[in-house]
Amino acid sequence: MRKHPRSHCNQSVLFLANSQPHRGVVKNACPSGLFIETHKPFVVGQSIELRIPDPKTRKLKLLIGVIVRSGPDGIGIRVKNICAATGD
Length: 88
What we know:
mainly beta; six-stranded antiparallel barrel; globular
């Protein structure tokens, strides 16, 4: 059972895992996590960073998280920290 309901989306995203850039599609999100559709294998426990637009300000926010699930369809991320908005 999830603490927060997930919102469905379909947003392309670039993210860093092991300091390497990767591309995926955010399929759903909530305040504590998100799911990124990607076809590359990732390791559970790996740190991840991604920048996504804040829907209210349209500025980019840096999300720092950890991979909690990895499968052939993508990765589940638990968000650990959301940094203040940065410039466009």
